[in-house]
Amino acid sequence: MKVIKTSKKGIRYLHGKLHEKATTVTKVIFWKIPHKTKEEIKLKIGRYKKDEFSLESVESKNPRSEMTLEEIEFLNLIEFLQENYEPFKLDVKRYIPIDESFNPENIEHLRAIFDNKDKEELLSFIVKNNILPEDLISSLQYQSQKNAIDEFESMLAQNLYEKDWQDWFKKNDWVLGSEFVKILDEREIDSENIADYLMQAYDGFLDIIEIKRPAEELKFWTDKKDHKNYIPSTELTKAITQATTYIFELERETNSLKFLEKVGHVKTIKPRCVLIFGRSIDWNDEQCEAYRILNSCYHNLSIMTYDHVLKRAKRILNINEKDASEEDTDEFVTF
Questions:
Q1: What letter does residue 320 receive in the DSSP assignment?
Q2: Is 104 in a helix, a strand, or coil?
Q3: How far is CA 88 from CA 92, 93, 98, in A?
Q4: pLDDT reported for residue 73
Q5: pLDDT tens-digit readout, 262-271
Q6: Whole-number Å distance between alpha carbons of 287 and 146
Q7: Other Cβ atoms closer than 10 A to 297
Q8: In the predicted structure, residue 191 carries a pLDDT above the cut 60
Q9: Is residue 138 part of a domain?
Q10: What is the domain count for the chain?
Q11: Residue 313, Cβ neighbours under 10 Å: how many?
């Protein structure tokens, strides 16, 4: 416990020991000196011979070295240490301290620098000129993705429109896994069929992502079993039919020059589809097994629930590592 004491001269003080060697001790002490109108705080740092040192003494007659800082001096010293110790320790050559002086005008200036519509050009410039260290870039990406996961969990607690989910997945396509490189700007397969997303897979070919909002009325399983088996709900069956229709229509457009112009260099051969539908957070073991069997019936369609997407996203970021290391009975199928 720290105790503030008072000297014979009425000066309140608080002392501490910074370091002790074989023959010397380095001591720090706060003084609070009363004046007629105010109290003045000073900081003294001194190095003393052990045989002349006492924590109970405010002053030493024969210090080896001693310095007393005025209040403004030690406050500035604190600020200096807070701003510069870590960068200096890490051997950073140049840096901008972020403190109270980093005002809104400076923040807007930084935003203007990074508010470049051509993100690839901006990133290339940052990396080429070593503006941001690699570990900071990685940390920013990790924090951005973690914030996206938090937003996803928050959205699951709300009754949102499908458009809200479409926007989220477009901004955070990384949760779909390494199978996909990017979302294409084009969504239209033909005049009657418009997918949620047409994706470029890692192998350069075209695939489909179809989502249905996780609404309570869009159940994954029927309420009753059939011959003791869980069976897909009417809503899920409709979604599967729609997804397989998209696959069929996309194959028909394989040789369409008009379609090829819209999707650019992405080839359309044996397209596959990921359907994101419903929730699985409260499934029992039988339902998990039924899900596994259902997915095994399709060679070009993979069904995931929103909870599977959430679990995959957390595994990508190594969140809940204990859970990720355990065998899961509700594992989803990947391509």
A1: T
A2: helix
A3: 6, 8, 15
A4: 83
A5: 777 777 888 8
A6: 29
A7: 9
A8: yes
A9: no
A10: 2
A11: 21
Which residues, other chains included, contact 234 with Cβ-Cβ below 8 Å and sequence gap of 6+? 222
Q: Identify whether residues 289 and 174 lie together within a single domain.
A: yes
The CATH number of whichever domain residue 160 belongs to comes to 3.40.91
- Whether residue 53 is predicted with pLDDT greater than 70 in this model: the reply is no
Question: Cα(82)–Cα(94) distance, rounded to whole angstroms?
Answer: 16
Query: What is the extent of the structural domain holding 19?
Result: 5-69
Residue 270: left if φ>0, alpha if ψ -120 to 50, beta else—which one? left
Instruction: Note the helical H segments in the chain.
Output: 71-89, 104-114, 119-128, 134-156, 162-171, 234-252, 257-263, 285-296, 306-316, 321-325
> And the tokens for 191?
């005049």
The answer to whether 280 and 220 are in contact (CB under 8 A) is: yes
| Residue at 270 is within a domain | yes
The CA–CA distances, whole Å, from 17 to 50, 85, 97 equal 12, 21, 30
| 271 domain-assigned | yes
Q: How many residues does the chain have?
A: 335
Supply 184's token pair.
């294409």
Residue 47: strand pairing partners: 26, 65
Statement: the pTM of the whole predicted model exceeds 0.85: no
| Segment of 90-104, 172-186, 311-325 carrying the highest mean pLDDT | 172-186
Choose one of 38, 69, 100: the last residue of a domain: 69
pLDDT value of position 241: 95
- Last residue of one domain, picked from the residues 69, 94, 118: 69
Rounded to an integer, what distance in angstroms lies between the CA atom of residue 164 and that of residue 151? 12
Pair 307, 243: CB distance under 8 Å = no
| CA distance readout (Å), 209 to 77, 104, 132, 275, 276 | 57, 41, 34, 6, 8
158 and 285 belong to one structural domain = yes
Question: Does residue 107 fall inside a structural domain?
Answer: no
CA-derived radius of gyration, the chain: 32
Per-residue pLDDT averaged across 318-333, rounded?
A: 50
* Neighbouring C-beta atoms of residue 274, cutoff 10 Å: 26
154 and 53 share a domain?
no
Name the token pair of 58.
């405010």
